[in-house]
């Protein structure tokens, strides 16, 4: 999601960390978790592409920030690096997005500066959001992995039931995810983050998004195999079969070929979590060195029991998932990174709000297409249940903001209000994704009710 200069020396640290078994120094517990100012806050996302035309005009930015403030929003999250891998600020490292969906920006002003200045006048906090391990939009064949030959090999190589497939060829996936373990990828992304923080010293915070693998099928490149072998200290005799294979007969509830774990499956899951953990800690250290007051945040899905599929352990190190889940090794808990965060927001992306509503979930019709998200009727497939679970496993190491995906409540405004109130009741505040849906539905009154009543 974000980022001057000096990229060569900048990131050797992070890339080296993820490639070997050396432990990363644990950051001191997030100061934010002990600061009352981070409680009872309401975050509203401003997506880059969905709002590109709307926020290409300064008066529009001022207008919608005022409406957001009046609705009870305290923090705005400005997406400045969408999944296309382009950025919405004058970068020397990443391609700059000046056109989207046929509209070309003509007003000559700096978008993020405008957001910061206008929001600060209203007493609001501004975070920049950047998508980290993604560098292309598959539906438009657009982005660095498409345009830059040097970055083509960064894309994720997915081990699917049909065989090894580059992610740019899987058009059912809109995000052209890259391999997080590659040193060149980490160096590039860290350089962008550092550039962003340097360019905008008045920026309050940064929220990382897509700091993850594409899914359980990623990444099975030769480079990943070599790094994994270094991690476990021995060659993988049968790759990828020692990680997992596909059943010829068994199907998942989603109708896909069922994966059959191999002897190294759990260690593979552990190693991938370490790759992401080490990058998060390295990013915190690098960015805090530039701006010690920066609020360092992260955004993930709330479905922790299956989120290991994207290589992410957002829990506290004090939480041991191996006591509950068969996929976790006893060592997996060491790669939880909640302690590295000043702010954590999680997508409680379910129509059902109260835990008791889980009993009515129809798994044949639910819309669960996010990475690592599966079908089920456990109570953590509700806003209430997922928020409670997040608070429990983060263990107070960072403030937690449960989030709603507004579009899921289309045609059901009262359920939207109920969901927002539940986020506030069960976590440290609410996160709303995204303002475009509030605008399209005309739900400003509903937003205010959900965030203030």
TrEMBL record:
Pfam (any one): GHL10
Span of the signal peptide: 1-18
GO molecular function, a single term: hydrolase activity
Glycosyl hydrolase-like domain ranges (all copies): 63-297
DUF4985 domain mapped to chain residues: 323-449
Record's keyword terms, sorted: Hydrolase, Signal
The protein, known as: Family 10 glycosylhydrolase
Species whose genome carries this gene: Nibribacter ruber
């Amino acid at each position: 999601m974000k980022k001057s200069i000096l990229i060569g020396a900048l990131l050797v640290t992070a890339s080296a960390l993820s490639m070997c078994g050396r432990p990363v120094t644990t950051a001191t517990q997030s100061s934010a978790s002990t600061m009352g100012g981070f409680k009872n806050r309401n975050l509203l996302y401003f997506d880059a592409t969905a709002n590109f035309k709307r926020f290409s005009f300064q008066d529009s930015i001022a207008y919608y920030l005022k409406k957001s403030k009046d609705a009870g929003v305290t923090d705005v999250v400005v997406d400045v690096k969408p999944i296309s891998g382009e950025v919405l600020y004058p970068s020397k490292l990443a391609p700059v997005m000046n056109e989207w969906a046929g509209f070309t920006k003509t007003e000559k002003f700096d978008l993020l500066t405008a957001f910061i200045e206008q929001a600060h006048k209203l007493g609001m906090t501004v975070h920049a959001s950047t998508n980290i391990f993604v560098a292309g939009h598959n539906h438009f064949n657009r982005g660095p992995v498409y345009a830059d030959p040097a970055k083509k090999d960064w894309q994720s190589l997915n081990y699917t039931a049909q065989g090894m497939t580059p992610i740019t060829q899987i058009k059912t996936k809109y995000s052209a995810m890259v391999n997080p373990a590659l040193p060149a990828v980490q160096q590039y992304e860290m350089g962008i983050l550092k550039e962003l923080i340097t360019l905008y010293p008045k920026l309050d915070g940064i929220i990382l998004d897509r700091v993850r693998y594409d899914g359980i099928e990623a990444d099975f490149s030769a480079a990943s195999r070599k790094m994994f072998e270094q991690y476990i200290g021995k060659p993988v005799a049968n790759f990828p079969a020692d990680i997992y294979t596909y059943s010829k007969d068994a199907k998942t509830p989603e109708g896909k070929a069922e994966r059959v774990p191999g002897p190294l499956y759990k260690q593979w899951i552990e190693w991938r979590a370490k790759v992401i953990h080490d990058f998060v800690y390295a990013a915190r250290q690098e960015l805090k060195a530039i701006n010690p007051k920066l609020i360092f945040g992260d955004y993930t899905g709330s479905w922790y029991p299956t989120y290991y599929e994207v290589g992410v352990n957002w829990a506290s190190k004090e939480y041991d998932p191996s006591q509950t889940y068969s996929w976790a090794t006893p060592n997996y808990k060491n790669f939880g990174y909640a302690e590295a965060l000043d702010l954590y927001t999680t997508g409680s992306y379910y129509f059902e709000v109260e835990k008791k509503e889980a009993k009515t979930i129809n798994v044949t019709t639910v819309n669960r297409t996010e990475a690592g998200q599966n079908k089920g009727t456990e109570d953590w497939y509700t806003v209430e249940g997922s928020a409670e679970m997040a608070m429990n496993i983060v263990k107070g190491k960072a403030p937690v903001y449960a989030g709603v995906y507004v579009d899921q409540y289309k045609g059901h405004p009262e359920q939207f209000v109920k969901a927002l109130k539940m986020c506030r009741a069960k976590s440290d505040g609410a996160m709303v994704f995204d303002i475009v849906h509030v605008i399209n539905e005309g739900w400003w009154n509903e937003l205010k009710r959900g965030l203030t009543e």
